[in-house]
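Hypothesis: this fold can be encoded by more than one sequence.
Test: take the structure tokens below, design a sequence, compare later.
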């Protein structure tokens, strides 16, 4: 059975059970066969099985499909479902670096908009958070390296903000940049609102992604905002400290998970060769979330992660996006 992801392009699915378009009449009237109702039934899609009249459309979760006139196939039909699109206009395509005021300061963010973007339909958004590092964070290069190729191919926008100064992480040197739920949430809301005003964002398909220190942030932020973001992706993160000094305490994550208003899906990736952040922390985070009832996908197999095992292999991203695009199709953001 061919599986598809919901998209605006029309991709025909294979037929699981073809419908019967005619019925047999009594012997005396066989020269005028009667036409029976034609129905697409049992055609499998990611959200379930389509059961609709020929030529009609049906909404499954947040994904719409149209039954072909002959009842032998279904195609994606975005118009079949109500939309939670931002309706933003005026934004341009391409990869650029911009700034947005944060109090008296200006913070940098990178944004990549695929060349196929038209603004006619809402598109997904990936928010990616870098690891702890001194300024500048080179967020444009990180988007180029990690998300741009798949975003351009699959049609989603990527935004990577630069963190704010965290002197406590490097007290004897240049302050590291990092993300903190209490300090950065208002600015991040402002950033998402700005992007949503400039681009037509599908608010039901906004995802969080983070690497290293950025993964620590995403792990907690997703638990605090599970009804805003559809899913969370972490690379080389985990809960690694007994206290909450660095915002990555297993005990704090566990407490927050117990209070979360929704079991937001997670995809946790960590190379077993990581010499910077122990992969045991990601395993612990995975166990913690699963025990709390959260859907969790993991990749703890060896991949190309640089000499210290802590980098991200961009070859992982197609599989990561396939997971994101298919996860929790009935989610509606609040």
């Amino acid at each position: 059975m061919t599986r598809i992801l919901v998209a605006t392009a029309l991709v025909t699915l294979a037929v699981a059970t073809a419908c019967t378009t005619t019925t047999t009449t009594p012997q005396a009237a066989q020269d005028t066969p009667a036409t029976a109702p034609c129905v697409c039934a049992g055609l499998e899609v990611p959200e379930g099985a389509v059961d609709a009249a020929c030529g009609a459309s049906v909404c499954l979760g947040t994904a719409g499909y149209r039954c072909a006139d002959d009842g032998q196939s279904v195609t994606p039909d975005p118009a079949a479902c109500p939309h939670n699109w931002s309706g933003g206009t005026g934004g341009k395509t391409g990869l650029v670096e911009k700034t947005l005021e944060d109090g008296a300061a200006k913070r940098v963010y990178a944004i990549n908009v695929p060349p196929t973007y038209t603004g006619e339909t809402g598109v997904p958004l990936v928010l990616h958070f870098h690891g702890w590092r001194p300024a500048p964070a080179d967020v444009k290069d990180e988007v180029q390296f990690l998300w741009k190729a798949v975003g351009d191919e699959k049609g989603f926008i990527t935004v990577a903000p630069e963190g704010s100064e965290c002197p406590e992480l490097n007290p004897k040197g240049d302050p590291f940049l990092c993300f903190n739920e209490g300090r950065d949430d208002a600015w991040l809301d402002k950033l998402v609102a700005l992007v949503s005003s400039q681009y037509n964002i599908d608010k039901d398909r906004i995802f969080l992604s983070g690497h290293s220190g950025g993964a620590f942030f995403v792990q907690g932020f997703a638990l605090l905002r599970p009804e805003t973001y559809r899913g969370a992706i972490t690379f080389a993160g985990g809960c690694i400290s007994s206290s909450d000094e660095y915002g990555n305490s297993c005990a704090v994550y566990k407490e927050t998970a117990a209070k979360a208003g929704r079991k937001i899906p997670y995809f946790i990736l960590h190379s077993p060769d990581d010499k910077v952040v122990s992969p045991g922390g990601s395993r612990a985070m995975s166990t913690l979330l699963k025990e709390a009832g959260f859907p969790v996908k993991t990749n703890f197999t060896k991949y190309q992660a640089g000499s210290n095992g802590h980098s991200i292999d961009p070859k992982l991203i197609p599989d990561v996006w396939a997971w994101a695009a298919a996860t929790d199709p009935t989610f509606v953001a609040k």
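The first strand starts at residue 22 and ends at 23. Residues 22-80 form one domain.
Hypothesis status: open.
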